[in-house]
Structure to design on (880 residues):
């Protein structure tokens, strides 16, 4: 590089082995002041692992190669024992799987490692609130994290790193749970950080973000750095990046829609839901979905789009983890047969399945094997014996889940592969109506295209699908119709072939925010 | 999954300890009479540990166990002494009492969301008080001979031998059908043969198999089978692994929790009856600190206190480790005060070594 920006750090021939798998194999990376480097690659390519090495999660000595801080003259080889060492060196990472404390307030998260022995709450809360307002984050400093939506939790993580005033900030798929508006705000923040001369490493699977933000792109494949790209026009660069990532071209990300049938698979009339304490979250929502149809639900974070699915599936039943106190009204028919909203197991038996948005919180038993996770819902549905579980391993090759063997713990899988495990768990129940809440969160481009193919294939076989997604292109590309939700009410219904995708996107945004 | 490394390791530790004690006690430890007594002592803690494994697997705890054992013992005692019930009916009285208490714990936890630690702590005190009230603060004795058989009787030598043979055949079948490497399998078969042979020798050459040990063995096999091979067992692990995910996947988390605490109560009741039968009468002060021994056995056996991972076989071996220690130290006439300290140290040590090994496996290989 010319004499312009100073180098902040370099990683040299990084190698990292896990039992049964080499995650990284001689990766090099440089980061300069005021630069945004996008890290891309398929699920399991090693992106998160590389960044965990940089941020001290994997201590020095547990991997091969060097992390060098500073430019050529001032360079020192770092030997981080833990993340605190990395923080001290000005490196912070915002993890893909959020690491927050549900019972602590937002303010505490900001200052946790610096809390005084005796705490005076008022100044801490005030300082935190000022800081959050300064970032333009819509968060209350005294809110308990467990009361926040996932999107807001992600903002807490970001605020936390910024509060440490890190020189190098690693974002591991930060937007996977954010709404459009929040994403826009995040871009603004990142540009500001960049302007202040900080270095940003940004892992993402979304091309839009790469072209919005990145100065350079580094592509990893199977643990090696295969290619670096400087900024160029999207039309020219995108195919090259995709090829470097997956080793082939991907056409037709959104396969053609099949014809929806006329038999109604799911009919919802006047669905309302009131939380304990009287806050009404859904106000008389009615819709129907036909066999073979994909119905999209759009809305801002907190508009109630996930709650529709959760309510219908029985998540708020008094026996559930949230306990009694939810008031649910409305009538539901599955395949013409009335279904009293009961427990999830009743919904399962009626033919529903529900992939929830919070993979870590309500999707997976992280400490347990892929096999246990895969078979659980089918086991509950069928009432059969666990011996019949072995059939579910078929999903591993079908969805191309990258793992050592079916007994491997899910916590060791990369984020995208974890998502595939959850999807497989629900497909294994052979539902007639499938609820998908952010089904491609954290999934790479190749696998995303595969999941889209699956959605199409299942729909063409007569499955009715209700899809909630904050990625509008995905929603428009897959759905036959899109319902736009605002504050717990359906504000508009849009036919997906009524206009160009860009125009539809406009309409949805307008109907959602107003 | 069938015959895990950890189980194997714990088995080696227990056997190693036995050999050590054999020499340190000049052979008294391995006499058939002593080993028979040892297994009988282990049986109660072992049975409790089986239930406690499930409780801890779902992320719970039951501190009321010891008091419930006493209360149920009093139930059985009163049934015998004051009501003149038959042996079976008296045992049933104890088990039903335990069931009620356990179900009450489970109900408070699931219905009113009281933390298991709190409600069972309360129950620990309540049940102890109830035991004192119903017994009038004194021993309820003497219980009848037929009833006492439960704690003191033996299954005769011949059926015991047949049972040991069956057990070995069962183990052989499982190992042969498993898919471990042959080196491991032959070790397991050899170990199993030694164990079954040893048991046959010990029980065959003394009075036979004590009934409490028979019950313990049956319950241990049942508990392990349920955990590994049934839906209920998989649900238990799922609930402990992630309650939200389990709920959405259709696991009846409330009923399951209630059922597990109720079962823990029933097992406590059974142990109350056994203990009473062994002592010819019920004491309201019996069972003190039983809950801690059970928790210790479970934790030594490698079940995570966070829930979600663990095994019944581990807990059984944990119970044997504690029992062997107790027995060996008594034989060596180590003063009781010192025994306590040594036992505590060894429990902590065992768990520490285990977690270290687990961390080692989980950490990178580089
Ligand atoms: N703790 C671990 N133990 C064992 N294997 C691991 C562990 N963490 C990661 N791996 C393996 O290392 C490889 C790289 O994982 P990594 O999480 O870095 O992927 P990634 O590029 O971030 O993927 P994604 O886009 O899905 O998040 C994967 O094959 C994964 O299974
Ligand atoms: Mg990752």
């Amino acid at each position: 590089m010319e004499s312009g920006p100073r180098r902040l750090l370099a990683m040299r021939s990084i190698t990292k082995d896990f039992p049964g798998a080499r995650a990284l194999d001689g990766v090099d990376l440089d980061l300069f002041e005021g630069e945004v480097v996008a890290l891309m690659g398929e699920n399991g390519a090693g992106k998160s692992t590389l960044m965990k090495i940089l941020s001290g999660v994997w201590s020095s000595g547990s991997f091969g190669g060097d992390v060098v801080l500073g430019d050529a003259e001032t360079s020192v080889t770092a030997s981080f024992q833990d993340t605190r060492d990395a923080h001290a060196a000005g490196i912070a990472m915002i993890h893909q799987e959020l690491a927050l404390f549900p019972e602590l307030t937002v303010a505490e998260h900001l200052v946790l490692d610096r809390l005084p022995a005796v705490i005076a709450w008022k100044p801490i809360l005030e300082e935190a609130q000022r800081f959050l307002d300064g970032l333009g984050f819509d968060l209350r400093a005294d809110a308990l994290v467990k009361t926040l939506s996932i999107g807001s939790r992600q903002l807490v993580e970001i605020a936390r790193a910024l509060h440490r005033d890190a020189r190098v900030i690693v974002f591991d798929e930060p937007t996977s749970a954010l709404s459009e508006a929040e994403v826009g705000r995040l871009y603004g923040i990142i540009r500001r950080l960049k302007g202040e001369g900080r270095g940003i490493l940004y892992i993402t699977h979304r091309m839009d973000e790469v072209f919005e933000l990145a100065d350079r792109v580094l592509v990893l494949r199977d643990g090696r750095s295969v290619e670096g790209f400087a900024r160029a026009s999207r039309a020219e660069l995108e195919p090259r990046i995709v090829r470097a990532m997956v080793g082939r071209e991907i056409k037709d990300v959104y396969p053609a829609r099949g014809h929806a049938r006329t038999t109604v698979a799911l009919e919802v009339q006047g669905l309302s839901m009131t939380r304990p304490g009287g806050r009404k979250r859904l106000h008389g929502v009615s819709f129907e979905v036909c066999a073979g149809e994909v119905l999209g639900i759009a809305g801002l974070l907190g508009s109630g789009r996930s709650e529709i699915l959760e309510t219908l599936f029985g998540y708020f039943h008094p026996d559930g983890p949230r306990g009694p106190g939810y008031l649910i009204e409305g009538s539901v028919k599955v395949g013409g047969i009335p279904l009293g909203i009961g427990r999830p197991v009743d919904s399962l038996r009626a033919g529903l399945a529900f992939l929830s948005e919070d993979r870590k919180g309500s999707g997976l038993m992280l400490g347990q094997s892929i096999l246990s996770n895969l078979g659980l819902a089918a086991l509950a549905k069928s009432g059969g014996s666990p011996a019949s579980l072995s059939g579910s391993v078929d999903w591993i090759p079908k969805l191309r889940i990258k793992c050592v063997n079916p007994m491997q713990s899910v916590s060791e899988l990369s984020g995208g592969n974890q998502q595939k495990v959850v999807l497989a768990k629900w497909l294994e129940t052979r539902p007639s109506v499938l609820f998908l809440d952010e089904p491609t969160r954290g999934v790479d481009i190749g696998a995303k295209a595969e999941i889209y193919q699956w959605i199409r294939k299942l729909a063409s076989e007569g499955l009715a699908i209700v899809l909630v997604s904050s990625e509008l292109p995905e929603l428009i590309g897959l759905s036959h119709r899109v319902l736009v939700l605002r504050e717990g009410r359906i504000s508009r219904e849009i036919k997906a072939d009524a206009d160009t995708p860009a125009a539809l996107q406009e309409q949805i945004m307008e109907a959602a925010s107003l | 999954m069938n015959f895990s490394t950890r189980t194997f390791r714990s088995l080696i530790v227990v056997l190693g300890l036995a050999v050590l004690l054999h020499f340190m006690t000049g052979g008294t430890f391995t006499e058939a009479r002593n080993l028979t007594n040892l297994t009988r002592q282990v049986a109660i803690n072992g049975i409790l540990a089986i239930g406690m494994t499930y409780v801890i697997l779902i992320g719970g705890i039951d501190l009321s166990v010891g008091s419930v054992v006493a209360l149920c013992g009093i139930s059985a005692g009163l049934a015998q002494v004051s009501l003149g019930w038959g042996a079976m009916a008296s045992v049933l009285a104890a088990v039903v009492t335990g069931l009620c208490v356990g179900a009450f714990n489970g109900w408070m936890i699931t219905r009113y969301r009281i933390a298991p630690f709190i409600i069972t702590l309360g129950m620990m005190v309540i049940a102890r008080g109830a035991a004192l009230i119903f017994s009038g603060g004194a021993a309820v004795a003497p219980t009848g001979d037929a009833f006492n058989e439960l704690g003191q009787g033996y299954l005769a030598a011949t059926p015991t031998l047949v049972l040991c043979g069956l057990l070995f055949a069962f183990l052989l079948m499982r190992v042969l059908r498993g898919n471990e490497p042959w080196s491991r399998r032959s070790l397991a078969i050899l170990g199993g043969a030694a164990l079954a042979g040893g048991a046959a020798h010990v029980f065959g050459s003394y009075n036979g198999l004590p009934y409490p040990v028979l019950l313990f063995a049956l319950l241990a096999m049942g508990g392990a089978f349920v955990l590994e091979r049934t839906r209920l067992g998989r649900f238990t692990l799922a609930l402990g692994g992630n309650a939200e995910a389990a709920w959405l996947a259709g696991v009846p988390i409330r009923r399951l929790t209630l059922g597990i605490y109720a079962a823990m109560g029933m097992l406590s009741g059974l142990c109350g009856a056994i203990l009473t039968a062994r002592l010819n009468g019920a004491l309201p002060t019996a069972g003190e600190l039983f809950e801690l021994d059970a928790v210790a056995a479970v934790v030594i056996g490698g079940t995570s206190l966070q829930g979600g991972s663990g095994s019944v076989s581990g807990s059984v071996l944990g119970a044997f480790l504690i029992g062997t220690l107790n027995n060996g130290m008594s034989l060596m006439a180590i003063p009781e005060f010192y025994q306590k300290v040594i036992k505590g140290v060894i429990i902590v040590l065992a768990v520490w070594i285990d977690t270290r090994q687990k961390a080692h496996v989980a950490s990178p290989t580089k």
